[in-house]
Fold:
Amino acid sequence: MPQLAILEQADAFVTHAGMGGSAEGLLTGTPMIAVPQGAEQFDNADRLVELGVARRVDTEEATPQLLREALFALADDPEVARRAAELSERSRAEGGTRRAVQLIEEYAGLDG
Structure:
């Protein structure tokens, strides 16, 4: 699935809050319902909440009703929309993979 293309159109993203999905949600400005499953996902979910772009729902509490409530809370909150748009703009301005490669090459003295 072309996840970025889908997220560009989505009102919200239910994610386990892995690094890839979290970064894609931030890049596309898509509010997230973070349902962490393991490893770093719990910290990522908490950070997304701190950033103001997500609600965390733990797996054992993830009922259809609670997920629905989290979705409407995100969709109806103008501050979440503002923060998501702001973080998306900042993420896009960073330059992505090309900029990361450039910085690594500069640091390693490979920039020509």
